[in-house]
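Feature request, filed as a ticket because there's no other form

It would be nice if the structure record came with a short human-readable summary line next to the tokens. Right now we just get the raw output. Example of a typical job, pasted below so the devs can see what we mean:
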Amino acid sequence: MIIQHMNAPLVPLNGIAPLTRLGVIRVQGEDAAKFLHGQLTQDFALLGPDESRLAAFCSAKGRMQASFIALRWEANDFLLVCEKDLLPQSLKRLSMFVLRAKAKLTDATGQFQLHGLVGDAVAQTLKSTAAPWTRVAAASSVGVMLYPADGQSRALLVTPADAAAPALPALTEAQWQWTEVRSGVVLISQPSFEALVPQMLNYESVGGVNFKKGCYPGQEVVARSQFRGTLKRRAYLVHADAELAAGQEVFQQADREQPTGIIVQAAPAPGGGYDAVASMQIAAAEAGGLTAGGPDGPALQREPLPYALLEDI
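Raw output as currently delivered:
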């Protein structure tokens, strides 16, 4: 049973937040799109000028080693926005697959500013109310429309490092991270490295996997999980009255010995406590009696996902 915790902010958020925990991998060259198409879970060969991508980088066993918000900065010039704690190893491993492709990969974090826009600031800055993963050009910046949080519009804004950020009300990165959690769409970080196949984070339902494209590392495992009914874990929104953190294990009262899942991302909630995205065994999540950090840890309340799962669409 889902116990709904009413946790929408008393006053809707509106403004801009610095995203210092994210970094940028830049992929440049005439084979850049082809290279990304062959390595990530999404289609880059047919990427339109007004599109961006949510995509995962997987091991041969289909486990996510990184996930990205990917966008074209210019022709043959792509930016992969990811968690900083996974950037060095992701850059190193991706570079191993370049081989003869005409593509150059670099850590371009210092070349850009990353900001999150929430509420009216999205339309004010990007002049757009388009669907998630739409790419929007705005002056010297590029915006990516994201999934909303509790009805509030959200977008990623990428700006050259030497350009001025928009003059908007200031939000904290913690406030932004809370909206990420509430959107139900998060990037993995080091604590969840190789812990999940994309569907265990609902990526197939939020535009993170293309099942019609060609091969990429782990493609057979990802496809098998989708079409052979072998998926046993999903991502859920949860709330606790105590602090939660990425990497904490989730337990279910019927089995105090083995964890049933993991907290992927968490943030303090405006109304108190913490909200989180947890990837858990479906049967355990449905049964309830969930705790974080151990069998006697703080209780987790499940909340409704803000989007439909692919199997429900």
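Something like this underneath would help us a lot:
The first helix runs from residue 32 to 39.
DSSP finds six helices and 16 strands in the chain.
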